[in-house]
Design brief:
ten-stranded mixed β-sheet; alpha/beta; manganese (chains A, B); binds 3-isopropylmalic acid; 3-isopropylmalate dehydrogenase (chains A, B); homodimer; globular; IsoPropMal-DH-like_dom (chains A, B); 364 residues; 2 domains
Chain lengths: 364, 364
């Protein structure tokens, strides 16, 4: 059987403790004969503390050589004043950019057992299942110029550049239409074409790809501000939402928060398929952040991180049976009431990070 | 008594029908001796249909000469394919820019009588009262370059420029701190300093103004994506949120939608105070849009538009008693159950746009 190379980058805050639970799951599959080879390295603030950079060159080489990267979380106020170029987030941004991970898939699913944890009314979110497809290597995150300049009179000017090329919009549109075809067949494309030229452009390219290649999928265009509103008002109207890097950052966070299951949501960041090998670079990470306030206390919910490994099984290794098996184990553990504090219902006894990991292994 | 010059720009969609109700209110105050002089002109799609521009030069001159502009709403799919420079929104953007209306105040208030109309749980939104202070004349809305360029190989590149100068951030920060001092004394400043240089800059300038001039106000910095999440999770943690033009567009729409009272929310866009006269240019508009789907049917809720006139009484004309009187009349009409469909409770008889206007006049 082929060996799958996994690079584990636990990062900062609760990253290491949720990654430890994933290692248990990897160990379980390995014992059952699935070939996994793992390496571990630093990223984010912990890499800065060790090397003075948010990710070392050696770690970048390992990431390039891996079949998939599992990423925990980065950042924390401890590093709020380190130089911009080496801030914790720079490690994640470099991974995305250098591995060419242009397609960020963020499912927002409301688990029926957890619907009451949402701040929204049960009937608004129960059964919610939407997929945000966020462009991840372009836009205002990477466009140049990106600088703060001091002017002659001593005042300053800061600039970021929102930039998109035809092929960048084309390929992310294809990912969205393709996914929609396997779901409820509807794509909502979000931009601000009424104030941004990149919005006008985005709409044109998405419309063209739709007409030429996916006319059987329903397409609607929605303004990003209205999309945010509609997510709050009636999120179940959406199936797949495709949008740019910055709008995607915000809209996917809203969608995640609606579900009441933030500690449950995984994500996948995928590169282009190599036409020769059919392989694509990939990084999997939980939607939640590093949560420094609860780090090291064993309170963190490891399910988003474990679910991210599940997405790796599915999207990177084609191990669909194994992925299904893992998803089922997670669902059973949830139903049994073994839950961390963030999702424990009223009157339920919350358990620790490790207990959830152990319970999932046991279910497997 | 001084005469206050009002320019009415009803615009498109439901704009004209909600503006008609404001005219009744203006008429009532005029009869009681408050000096109002009104003119009406076109803006948006209706201006385009008449003049081929989203606002005529004559209307711009009237706006410059007015003490306050009352603005309805613009846009509709009818004009989706007019040239970019003359699209309906261009009229609103030109008004904001040419009148120097840099400070957009968007209160998000959840009226107890309407809390059940929210998609959020009652306890999450009941009593909500936050103020979004959005920078309105800078950022990615106006920065250059802003263009779509065709490259040699036939592909295209689109660009928008997110740009801020020191004085732009300073003055909006002052507005926010100043307002917070009259409220619950807390400002949350939202940006993406972890990926944007304008975010780094925004945070620096806001911090400096806070230290130098408003150290008695509580200040917190929050990432824009996290701010969106927190608005959904627990909006009552906020008092005043200050943010840039694009984040403000999205965050204020989320905040408005939380309240369940979108048809109720007014907004004010203010310029700098003239040091000589103490006057400032101002435009008042409802938070809701042109809602083409219900336009012309007498279904629109006129309260956001009437409340916008109330903000004009307060912020432009210093007519505080009159503003209070109007607010009370609106509240009484709401309590009496005279409501349009969007806010009618279960089992309530919804009334039309005009009925609400008439009822408010009667209450006055
Ligand atoms: C950590 C940060 C750089 C990142 C982003 O802004 O993309 C995060 O918010 C995310 O959504 O993955
Ligand atoms: C109509 C449009 C140009 C406008 C904006 O994007 O600013 C609107 O969404 C708003 O928030 O006032």
């Amino acid at each position: 059987m082929a060996t799958h190379k996994l690079l584990l980058l636990p990062g900062d805050g609760i990253g290491p403790e949720v990654m430890r639970e994933v290692e248990k799951i990897v160990g379980w599959f390995r014992k059952r004969g699935v070939g996994f080879e793992t390496e571990t390295d630093l990223v984010g603030g912990s890499a800065y503390d060790a090397h003075g950079a948010a990710i070392s060159e050696a770690a970048m080489e390992r990431a390039q050589a891996a079949d998939a990267v599992l990423f925990g979380a980065v950042g924390g106020s401890k590093w709020d004043s380190v130089p911009y170029a080496v801030r914790p987030e720079a490690g994640l941004l470099r991974l995305r950019k250098d591995l060419g991970l242009f397609a960020n898939l963020r499912p927002a699913i409301c688990y029926p057992a957890l619907a009451d944890a949402s701040s929204l009314k049960r009937e608004v979110v129960e059964g919610l299942d939407i997929m945000i497809v966020r462009e991840l290597t372009g836009g205002v995150y990477f466009g140049e110029p990106k600088e703060i300049v001091t002017l002659e009179d001593g005042s300053q000017r800061a600039v970021d550049t929102q930039l998109y090329h035809t092929h960048e919009v084309e390929r992310i549109a294809r990912v969205a239409f393709d996914l929609a075809g396997k779901r409820r067949n509807k794509v909502s494309s979000a931009e601000k074409f009424n104030v941004m030229k990149t919005g006008v452009f985005w709409r044109q390219v998405v419309t063209r790809i739709h007409k030429a290649e996916f006319s059987d999928v329903e397409l609607e265009h929605v303004l990003a501000d209205n999309c945010a509103m509609q997510l709050v008002r009636n999120p179940k109207q959406f199936d797949v939402i495709v949008t740019d890097n910055l709008f995607g950052d915000i809209l996917s966070d809203i969608a995640a928060m609606l579900t009441g299951s933030l500690g449950m949501l995984p994500s996948a960041s995928l590169g282009a398929e190599d036409p020769a090998t059919g392989q694509r670079k990939a990084l999997y990470e939980p939607v939640h952040g590093s949560a420094p306030d609860i780090a090291g206390k064993g309170l963190a919910n490891p399910i988003a991180m474990i679910g991210s490994f599940g997405m790796a099984l599915r999207y990177s290794f084609g191990l669909l049976d194994e992925a299904d098996r893992l998803d089922k184990a997670i669902a059973n553990v949830l139903t049994s009431g073994t839950r961390t504090k963030d999702i424990a219902g009223p009157g339920m006894n919350a358990v620790g990070t490790q207990d959830v990991g152990d319970a999932i292994v046991k279910e497997l």
